[in-house]
Amino acid sequence: MQAEIITIGDELLIGQTIDTNSAWIGERLSLAGIKVVQVRSIPDDPDRIQQALRDLMPATRLVLITGGLGPTNDDITRNTLCTYFGDELVLNQEVLDQLSLFFEKRGRPMNEHNRAQAMVPSRCKVLPNALGTAPGMWFEEDGKVVVSMPGVPYEMKAIMTDHVLPRLSGRSNGYHILHKHIHTFGIPESELMVKIADWEAQLPAPMKLAYLPSPGMVKLRITVESTGDRALLLAGVEEAVKELQGLIPEYIVGYDDDNLEHGIGRMLLDAGQTLAVAESCTGGFLAHRITSVSVSSAYLKGGVVAYANEIKATLLGVKESTLEEHGAVSGEVVKEMVEGTLQATGADWAIATSGVAGPAGGSEEKPVGTVWIAVGNKEQIVVSHHLFGNDRMANIQRSTNTALKMLRKELLKLFVD
Amino acid sequence: MQAEIITIGDELLIGQTIDTNSAWIGERLSLAGIKVVQVRSIPDDPDRIQQALRDLMPATRLVLITGGLGPTNDDITRNTLCTYFGDELVLNQEVLDQLSLFFEKRGRPMNEHNRAQAMVPSRCKVLPNALGTAPGMWFEEDGKVVVSMPGVPYEMKAIMTDHVLPRLSGRSNGYHILHKHIHTFGIPESELMVKIADWEAQLPAPMKLAYLPSPGMVKLRITVESTGDRALLLAGVEEAVKELQGLIPEYIVGYDDDNLEHGIGRMLLDAGQTLAVAESCTGGFLAHRITSVSVSSAYLKGGVVAYANEIKATLLGVKESTLEEHGAVSGEVVKEMVEGTLQATGADWAIATSGVAGPAGGSEEKPVGTVWIAVGNKEQIVVSHHLFGNDRMANIQRSTNTALKMLRKELLKLFVD
Q1: Residue A71 main-chain phi, psi, to 5 deg
Q2: Which of A7, A14, A160 to mutate to test binding with chain B, by most B CBs within 10 Å of its CB?
Q3: Does this complex have an ipTM over 0.90?
Q4: Residue A417 to chain B, least CA–CA distance (Å)
Q5: How far, in whole angstroms, is CA B136 from its chain's centroid?
Q6: With 80 as the cut, is the pLDDT of residue B416 above it?
Q7: CA-CA distance, B71 to B345, in Å (whole number)?
């Protein structure tokens, strides 16, 4: 089965909000064997919404819509869908009861605008919203399904998980969509392409390969879309991945959700070792990436964001003389930051970053994008120097990726005889 | 002028990549008086690309396309556009020279796939890509413009900024699109709506109001789309905002890009005071938000990510007895974390967070979502207790927003007699 997604909201078209809903929905549908063939973002405009539905409906069996269901005047999706389906709004007692409970639990009074959210098209199936006030709606006519959900991501996700995906299960007719992601680091896209050209050319027919470059990394994705035995298809993909692993072992840093921070976490857990970080230019982002893994409290002792030089000195024991002689952005300082972090936290491993993230603060000797990173333990500290670009956020991200990659390389040695 | 955006890439439809390009482009076009009326995300599929162009071209004068221009086999946008326009690929010497320079600078050999990127449709205007290997392309026929750019965000942004926006300037025919964003905090959408209903009803005709809820916050957006004197339109918006400010002063925390972290930064700079943070449950995200402001090094001393209890004790001087008696997630501990941070960093202000971000670690007494936050200086420390939800990333975000809001409230007192 194929599906289309419509995300509604002026904020999506003027850059106020980045649409994260369609990516999440696309991933979940893909896992359910349903292929998303297009995403459209359109304004809060009844004509545009109706036009989009008229465009899509002849060829599409499933349309998922997010946005425009709130209680305020700019939320017009519900009325527009009601008009589109020639239906009328009726009071749904079940929704009204849920709304009353929602407000009671929060100790807030319910006003007329909230109460109006219990008015829904008579022929739709209501999908309860446990986390908010706007219910989802499921319209089904002539074997075609249109689902309308709120645009607030966590409300949409709960409605998808609790109601939409269960109702869609079994509708894929044995069609499978499998994705395998291979994360590579340290080789440009076009060189990677040459290195794995023969392997790519010999991939069996249902497998497609895609390249996804990002600062410092290229993700490869193998996709299989096919009916047939799911286990057999999966085995074929794993076979191809094994061959690739043999071809470029030095560049592969992880698979699927197993990104750098997950991989590092697993290795630290396996080794029973701990980590701490000392950040200057990454300003907390490195710790944030590590703590985005839910079990990270088992191996992350903590860290220091050492923005001011005096913090580098007082909390991490970086010597004043080193700061004066080499400057805060230097190999010597990141090395001492690692030593000080190991000392201060008792962690087995430490990472330190110091650089000029920009846009200001650059000099001829140390232009914006200059970054020093050190990673090590009590035995050994590895120091590296980089010259990234001019964009502050990209520099923070690249420094973080590179630091995690360096730690990964060191941790790998624990698992090699 | 109206525009449509097409983003190309299988990865956008299966949830591997979130499309951030269209939001950025939408914002820039909006500033240039060009209104984006639709964004479509479609797969790397020649038929779908041609179909999208055939759908759009009759009614649209400007189409901006991103993605599918790389050197690998899955990049098919350039060939597809060439076919669509009935054009042929020719070697562009200027692009080849730029490519040679690009590889020379990086000390990397250029291979045949890179060289092939200098083959471009004969009738397009080439838009040089200073940061990558795939040039942008500008097609113009019968007063209609189609622009193709790479999907890598920083390459696209550079081509937009250096080439596309300058070429589009002056094409808006005196049409202005103005947005004013008002950030509110601490009042639900439906209550806010009631509070400002009269003000909203009396907004002059060209002004439209939108509500954008997110965890703990509602952004209001006033939009004006009109020809006429830009300064006069702006003055009208500012007048309306001033009235709103008089109506709900306690809920407004900032305007436009002046989000919480910018606002706090400006106040700290104005007051000549400094800040440090101590994070447990926010795990570095609070420091990251603060350091995302480029001048933050002028007022942020640094911070400590105190994940393990021993770090709270050794680096921040939280007493063992306090940790034992009240637990790490407690008002007493965040208060001592603030005191310890002020002491350790010499900062004028400190923020501390401690909570159960989830999904594991909850107990009956302190369920997932329990968060304590403290903010203060040497004179006074304010402590607050919260019960957020079950989602780890949402808890980290809400804790961070709430902590910044608490600091903002304290800093505001510096500027009141």
Answers
A1: -85, -5
A2: A14
A3: no
A4: 31
A5: 24
A6: no
A7: 50
